[in-house]
Amino acid sequence: MNGAVERELKLAAPRRFSLARMDPRLAGFVASPVRFRRLHTVYYDTPDLRLARWGCSLRFRGGEGWTLKIPEAQRSAALVREEHVFPGDGSAIPAAALDLATAYLRGVMPSPVIELRTLRASRHVLGDGGDDLAEVVEDDVRVVNGTRVVRRFRQLEIELARAAPDALLPVFGKLLREEGAGKRDPVPKNVRALGADACAAEIDVRPPGRGARLGEVARAALAVSVERFIRYDATLRLAADAAAVHQARVCVRRIRSDLRTFLPLLDANWARELRDRLRWPQDVLSAARDADVVLESLRRASVALPEGDRNIVEDVLAPMRAARERAYDVVRGMLRDPRYVPMLCALVDAAKRPPLNARADAPATDAVAGILDDGWVTLRRRVRKRSRPPSDRELHAIRIAAKRVRYAAEAIAPVAGRAAERFGHDAERLQTVLGEQHDAVLACEGLRSLDADGTQAFVAGELAAIASAAERAARRSWPKVWRAAKRTHRRLRRTR
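Given the sequence above, the corresponding structure tokens read:
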């Protein structure tokens, strides 16, 4: 399993185009002699084609073994996928491949769905120094059923070499089009062979339009976060890191927040039950994220220390690193817990068909801003009832309420317009400032719990002093940010 990132540009292959007859001199590049290969490929998927509909593919190819491709976020016109190769003889799908595809398969065992026989012509594009920059392939594909050809198509692919910059992909695409290649054709071979059923995404993440109903707004909000969480699953399994844990936690928190925000439109028992189920992954991911935040903030703070003290910071932080590893072990255990796949199934069902009540049929433009009211009342009440000065617990509760309001504003923005966007931005600023205060508190608590003495205790004290200063700065700045959010909320209400 290598996890290489495949960066491809697929083009149509008109009849007049021939890779074999293409001039080897390409505007400063050189194409190697053509090579021909015959490929026999069997693609595996679920009966409802879940892998294909998520942009993934699982194939067995003689001489190559098993390959699972998982798409990354689209960064350009290219098709960017992680390619994971597993050895095997085709008699059984490797367990590691099934594990990596867990979020897409969700307990359904894939089986053969399409068989391709391909004549592949390929040439490498070389730079002036002979460096391999890309491989260009022309595939003449036959979709077969036994010995019968049921469909045939041609396709061109340009795949960048590992060290080649992304900027070369459109350059090579233009060169090939000048040689007679067709327009961009981003559909993978397995999807083209399977047909229309493989093209429809399992979760529709399109934003609601201005004429949407309230229920469409709620479904769209859930769909975006569920879709992102499903895609982060493989990253957590392969190499969980601070970024992946943070993004996965954000997804879970958004889903739980949206279930509460849109509760008046949903079946209340269903929504509460799903929120309760999601408390488990939220707690697991939060513990790992908090451990990351403490380490990250203290390492940043250590830059201000004298060089001699900086040299022993990692020794001081060793117990916190150990705590982080334990938290990450819990994350890995969660992904393989028997409760996990049923939870994923419930999330996908929620994103596709949340149980809505009659209130969900109301036009969104007439009532959507009212969705903010409950969260806003909670936030305002927590601010008004705070102590003078507020406790750390009170500030953390205000931050949680600000986050809920922010998520609600972002959910309604497609139908409520710029005023909701601005309010969401101000709520995010409040959340951020109070998050900095909370992170500093966690850092101080972690340092206070260390069993250190001598020089290490002194350095821990220095770090605690820096964290305390950051905490005080956040305390001073949050009231100003809160006043800005109140002004933006008043403007939003006037637009209703």
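Residues 10 and 187 are 8 Å apart (CA to CA). Try to locate this feature in the token string yourself.
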